């Protein structure tokens, strides 16, 4: 491995300027020599001395499974965008381009592990068994998340940037306090998802400090998609994000976030490190947000289309398809069946969305407290009575 | 029934809660070996071990944020914030997560977390050590906010707060930590209830935390002048339990609300608004307030001017009686 400090420019004037970055440097950035890769953008499977063994068991059936995961995730993600454009959702948060980063990590989690998402982790939700339709309420405005986070071992989406890094660390501390760290078959770990922008938040820093102080079994999984809405990575950090781990005293690894096998392998390794008491670990999944931040965003105001075109050459799904065809001899009927299944999922997703009822006004008051306060009880009763007074007017 | 200081009554309350439920954890800065800067957690680390009494990194957002995660895991964390003015790095986690996880999950994930905060002035401290930020928490839906004023309540209210399934911001009157009083053998009142602590007939005085003692002393002084004050310890600030206040005001027709906090958009203004809604026809005088000022807490050489004392409470009573 090359000197991790070598990236740091000795002369500040040699750092890439904003103009350089905007003119496509980001698109040509290969992630540096430390980038772990097991499947090249051209679809060639390669080995990695350190992490290759963690995906050695992945044969054609498993790779087909990850391909299916990614295609289905992308398909309902695109449907989410469309539903927003048609006025059925208030907003959608696209994950386009980050399918490998999320499926690789999500498939490395065991049923016992816990995951704390940000709000773009639709692919991780998929891997946790949360049905895509359960994500719709958040964006349609009918709920703040409908799945059971304890049962799914997938916390509700956290929208305040970085908050979940401390919540995940606390959860992982609890796993350790309960003796769920070690060589036993019931060992557990926690995975915390956040983005490059979040790394500037105090809560992420504090999460790193606390996880280190308590040897918490938590994998910090940073999807560096290069952009925090309109702000490029250079405004968040001088050093590659994975190198920050060194300052906190735990390992950091940069993985090709568009390579599902590499993401799987590094995540499996990191989770096992945590389960056996060697946590925490930081993973930087080096990827790209191929769509807008949300459906309310307009990337043409701050980045060049060329950059997206370059990243399309590194598409996370296409490289798996090429590998399946060229190296593993998978025929067109498989791809056709996945395509068909994805269209069925999208249709179900759409139909579910259109049929979602608005919640009644009593929902505003429910589960604010375990023990409803008398004043909220009074507010509820007064408003419901007021609301009911209009019920006869429409007729 | 035993007699002890407010700090020791809290300590015995924490100890009892930890003995009753192994999921109860105590966490905060210096709460372990040192026993907390006010010694409220003295001896707990020795007896329960460092996995249940956590000396944490110096980071308040971390204290609250990890407590939220521990609660998701099924623990019942009791967080100590060392001083009132240091809670604000944790305010984001309190408002955005602690207060909302239950609502967001529609009850699937309860948040049984207690945040203990020593509050109020009167100890000659430097800046940020004497504040009364309770309104900032009472305003937040999803939180419950209480303030103890004496050893009996300190012991029982902390036990009740830990047993509650809602997040409770628990204010402790730091200048009363060393005041002694009796602790009952069973809880003297439910957690979310106010109490008449001195019966009277001329003017109602509602107060909480450190100023309950001040108001009781004012009532003694007023009695010497032939004025009968009814003193009510609010105890719970969110939800407010104003039934006893309404009942009292309907008899006295006069209310003075007392607090160290700045008056603007405060617990005292909330009490005043609700009392005029409920007791409009009983009031003989406007609801008056005796409070700190709408200024930052002053340098400590001025704190006796800032803090309501016996004479300012009596001045408020006099003004209420002038109508």
Give keywords.
A: 395 residues; Rossmann fold; 2 domains; five-stranded parallel sheet; two-stranded antiparallel sheet; globular; B: 323 residues; alpha/beta; five-stranded mixed sheet
Overview of this structure, please?
The complex is a heterodimer of chains A (395) and B (323). Chain A has 395 residues and is of the alpha/beta class. Chain A has 14 helices and 7 strands. Chain A folds into 2 domains: 342 residues, 3-Layer(aba) Sandwich (Rossmann fold), CATH 3.40.50.970; 36 residues. In chain A, 43% of the residues lie in helices and 8% in strands. In chain A, strand 6, helix 10 and strand 7 form a beta-alpha-beta unit. Chain B folds into 2 domains: 182 residues, Thiamin diphosphate (ThDP)-binding fold, Pyr/PP domains (Rossmann fold, 3-Layer(aba) Sandwich); 128 residues, Rossmann fold, CATH 3.40.50. Chain B has a 7-stranded mixed β-sheet with strand order 3-2-4-5-7-6-12, sandwiched between helices. The radius of gyration of chain B is 19 Å and the shape is globular. At the A-B interface, helix 7, helix 8 and helix 14 of A face helix 3, helix 4 and helix 5 of B.
Largest sheet of chain A: 5 strands, parallel
β-strand amount of chain B: 15-25%
**Global outline of chain A:** globular
What name does CATH use for the topology of the largest domain in chain A? Rossmann fold
Order of helices and strands of chain B: EHEHEHEHHEHEHEEEEHEEHEHEHH
CATH H-level superfamily of the largest domain in chain B: Thiamin diphosphate (ThDP)-binding fold, Pyr/PP domains
* Oligomerization: heterodimer
Greatest interface and its participating residue counts: A-B, 44 and 46 residues
Number of strands of chain B: 14
> What would CATH call the class of the largest domain in chain B?
Alpha Beta
The major β-sheet of chain B equals: 7 strands, mixed
Q: Supply Rg of chain B.
A: 19 Å
């Amino acid at each position: 491995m090359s000197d991790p400090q070598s990236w740091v420019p000795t002369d500040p004037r040699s750092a890439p300027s904003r103009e350089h970055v905007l003119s496509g440097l980001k698109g040509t950035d290969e992630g540096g020599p430390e980038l772990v890769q097991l499947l090249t953008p051209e679809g060639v499977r390669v080995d990695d001395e350190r992490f290759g063994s963690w995906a050695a068991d992945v044969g054609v059936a498993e790779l087909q499974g990850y391909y299916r995961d990614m295609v289905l995730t992308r398909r309902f993600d695109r449907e989410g965008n469309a539903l927003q454009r048609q006025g059925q959702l208030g907003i959608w948060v696209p994950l386009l381009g980050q399918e490998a980063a999320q499926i690789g990590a999500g498939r490395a989690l065991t049923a016992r592990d816990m995951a704390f998402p940000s709000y773009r982790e639709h692919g991780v939700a998929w891997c946790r068994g949360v049905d895509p339709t359960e994500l719709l309420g958040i964006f349609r405005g009918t709920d703040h998340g409908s799945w059971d986070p304890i049962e799914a071992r997938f916390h509700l989406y956290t929208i305040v940037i970085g908050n979940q890094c401390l919540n995940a660390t606390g959860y992982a501390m609890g796993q350790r306090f309960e003796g769920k760290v070690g060589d036993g078959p019931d060992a557990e770990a926690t995975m915390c998802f956040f983005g490059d922008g979040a790394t500037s938040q105090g809560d992420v820093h504090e999460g790193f400090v606390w996880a280190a102080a308590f040897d918490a079994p938590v994998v910090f999984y940073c999807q560096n998609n290069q952009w925090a809405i309109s702000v490029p990575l250079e405004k968040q950090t001088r050093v590659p994000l994975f190198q920050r781990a060194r300052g906190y005293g735990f390992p950091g690894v940069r993985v090709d976030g568009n390579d599902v096998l590499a993401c799987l392998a590094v995540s499996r390794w990191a989770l096992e490190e945590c389960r056996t008491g060697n946590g925490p670990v930081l993973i930087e999944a080096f990827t790209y947000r191929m769509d807008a931040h949300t459906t309310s965003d307009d990337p043409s105001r701050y980045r060049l289309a060329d950059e997206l075109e370059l990243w399309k050459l590194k598409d996370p799904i296409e490289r798996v398809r090429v590998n399946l065809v060229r190296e593993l001899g998978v025929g067109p009927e498989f791809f056709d069946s996945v395509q068909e299944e994805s269209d069925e999922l999208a249709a179900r997703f759409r139909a579910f969305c259109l049929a979602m009822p608005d919640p009644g006004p009593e929902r505003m008051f429910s589960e604010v407290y375990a023990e409803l306060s008398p004043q909220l009880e009074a507010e509820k009763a007064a408003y419901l009575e007021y609301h009911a007074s209009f019920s006869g007017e429409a007729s | 029934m035993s007699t002890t200081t407010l700090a020791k009554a809290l300590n015995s309350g924490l100890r009892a809660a930890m003995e009753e439920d192994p999921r109860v954890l105590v966490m905060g800065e210096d709460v372990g070996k040192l026993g907390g800067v006010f010694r409220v957690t003295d001896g707990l680390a020795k007896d329960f071990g460092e996995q249940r009494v956590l000396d944490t990194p110096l980071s308040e957002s971390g204290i609250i944020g990890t407590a939220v995660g521990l609660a998701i895991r099924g623990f019942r964390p009791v967080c100590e914030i060392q001083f009132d003015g240091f809670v604000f790095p944790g305010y984001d986690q309190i408002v955005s997560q602690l207060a909302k996880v239950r609502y967001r999950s529609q009850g699937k994930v309860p948040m049984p977390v207690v945040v203990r905060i020593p509050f109020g002035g009167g100890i000659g401290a430097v800046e940020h050590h004497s504040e009364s930020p309770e309104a900032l928490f009472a305003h937040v839906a999803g939180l419950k906010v209480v303030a103890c004023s004496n050893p009996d309540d300190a012991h029982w209210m902390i036990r009740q707060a830990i047993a509650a399934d809602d997040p409770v911001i628990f204010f402790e009157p730091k200048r009363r930590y060393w005041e002694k009083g009796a602790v009952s053998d069973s809880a003297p009142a439910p957690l979310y209830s106010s109490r008449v602590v001195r019966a009277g007939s001329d003017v109602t005085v509602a107060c909480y935390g450190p100023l309950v003692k001040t108001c009781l002393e004012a009532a003694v002084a007023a009695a010497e002048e032939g004025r009968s004050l009814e003193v009510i310890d609010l105890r719970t600030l969110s939800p407010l339990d104003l039934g006893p206040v309404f009942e009292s005001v309907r008899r006295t027709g006069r209310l003075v609300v007392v607090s160290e906090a700045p008056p603007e958009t405060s617990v005292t203004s909330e009490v005043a608004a609700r009392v005029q809604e409920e007791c409009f026809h009983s009031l003989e005088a406007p609801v008056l307030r005796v409070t700190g000022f709408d200024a930052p807490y002053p340098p400590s050489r001025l704190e006796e001017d800032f803090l309501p004392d016996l004479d300012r409470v009596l001045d408020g009573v006099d003004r209420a009686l002038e109508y």
